[in-house]
Input
Amino acid sequence: MLSCDEVRRQMSACPEGSPSPALAEHLSRCEPCLEAGLDAALARPPEVRVPEHFQQRVLARLPAAAPVEMPEYPWVPVAASILCAIFLAALWWSGDLARLLALLDDTVRRPVVLLAIGGVETALSLLWFWRVWSEDR
Output
């Protein structure tokens, strides 16, 4: 009959393969050794051997992807123009358009607002140039 220390030494020495009859008998009777063996087996990552040229074979079987084109929505500028016209007409009809334009005039004349507007315009221009330049390459 094997001792618990001997069983754990044998399990760590040869983690793979079939256990000896004495080891199997001990594990069938000793719950702590069985749990220790299961914990050790679960903690050890499985050994996976990737066949040679596996990546090339998988990539060769994939269908060639067609370039994805972004859908065009020609109605978006028209819809935006109509909504803007409706919004401005509603402001004019309510009488708030003159007050809004005066507030906008006061706001835009501030240097901080002008700097912010210039920064946003510069950032958008740079993004547009980068997109156009990257499409040409």
